[in-house]
Amino acid sequence: MPRKAIADEKQRKRQHWAWYMYDFGNSAYAAVILLAVFSAYFKGQVVGGAAGSRLWGLALGTAMLVVAVLSPFLGAFADFAASKKRLLFIFSALSWVFTALLFFVQKGDVLMGFIFFVLAEIGYRGAQVFYNALLPEIASPDEIGQVSGNGWAIGSIGGVVCLLFILPPIVLTKNNPALNLLVVRSSFAFAALFFAVSASLLFLRVKESRKGRTLPPGESYLSVSVKRLVATFKAVRHFKQFIAFIISFLIYNDGILMALDFAAIIGAVLFGMTQTQLILFMIVVQVTSAIGAYLFGMLGEKIGFKKALLISLGLMILAVIWMVFNPSLTGYFIIGGLAGFALTGVQSLSRTMAGLFAPASKSAEFFGFFAVAGKSSSFIGPATFGLLAAGLAQYFQKSGLDAVHAEQDGTRAGLVVIALFLVVGLIILLFVNEKRARQAAEDFVPTAD
Fold this sequence. Notes:
By secondary structure, this protein is mainly α.
C-alpha cells in the first residue's frame, strides 16, 4: 500500500475513534440523567408520587418539541455554511452546563429541575442532529453501517464506565441519607464533566470535508435555510422510500424512547428498586446494548439493514410484552438485558439507514428531518406515557385501589402503549424498499442554491 494511502487510512481511523468518543461521552448523560439516576430522583425526590411521572414526560416532551422545530432549519444552515461541528459544540456545551447545574436541584425544586433538565435535554438531543450528520463525512457508504454500530457499542460502554464510577460512593453512603443524596446530586455534575472530556477529541480531530459557501447578495442564513428546505420538499417525490422510512421511524421510535426514558421509573414503581439496583440494572442494559449495537451493525452489512432492523424491533416487542406480565425483579433484569440488546440495534440501524438514504449534499438536512421524526415522536411518546400512567393511577385509586397498586396498574397500561407503537412502526417498515432508497440517494443531482 502506498505511503499516502497508509497515512489516509490512519487519518480515517483517527476520525472514526474521535467520533466514537463523542458517543462514549454522551452515553454518560443518557445513563445517569435519563436512565439510572436523575429520572428516578426527579420523580421520587424532587416531585414525588404519580405526578412525578407526568412531569417527567412533559419535560421530555417539551425539550423534544423545541428540537423538532429547530432541527430542519439548523440542518439546512449547517449544510450551507459547513457548520456541523460549530453547531455540535454549541448544543453540546448547552447540555454540559445545565447537566452540571442539576446538582443544585433538591426536594421541592420542581420548576428549577424542570427548566434545567429541559435545557440540558435540548442540548443533548439537538447536538445529535449534527453528530449524526458527520457520519457520512467520516465513513464511506460501504462502512457506514459498521461505523454507526461501533459508535453505539462504544457509546454504551461509556455509559457503563460512568455508572461504575458513581456506583461505589452511592453504595457506601446508603446508610447516611443526607450524604447519599449529596452523592446522587454530585453524579449529575460528574456526568457533565465525563461527557465534555470524552467529546473533546471529536472537535480536535474530525474535519468537515465540504466547504461553506458565501451568502448571495441580499440573503441571510435564515432565508437561505428556508429556500434549501423548500427545495428539499420539492425533491421529496424522488425520496418516497426515505419518507416511508421516516414515518415508520417516527412511530416505532416512540416506543423505543418511552421504554428508555421511563425504564428507571418503571423499575421503581413496579418493583420498588433502590438507587443501587437501578444503577446495576442500567449497567446490565448498557453492556447488552454494546453487544447488540456491534452485532447488529455486522448483521446489517450481511443480510441488509432493513432485515436486521426488523429482527431488532421484533426482539424489542417481545421484551415489552414480557415486561407487562413479568412479576419479579429478577425477570425485570433479564428483560432489561434483552431490551438493551435490541434497542441499540434499532437505534444504530435507523441512523445507518437515514445516512444511506440521504444524498451526500444534503446530509445534515436529511438528518434534520430524521431528528424531526425522532424528536416529535419524543414529544408525543413520553408525554403520552406520563399522562396515561398518572391519569390511570388516579382513576384506579378512585375506584378503590390503594395508591401503590393504582400506580403500578397505570404503569403497566403504559407498557401496552409502548408495544403498540413498536408493532405499528414495524408494519410500516415492511413496505420500505431499501434498495430503491439507496439508489435514489445516489442518483440525486443537487440544484444550485
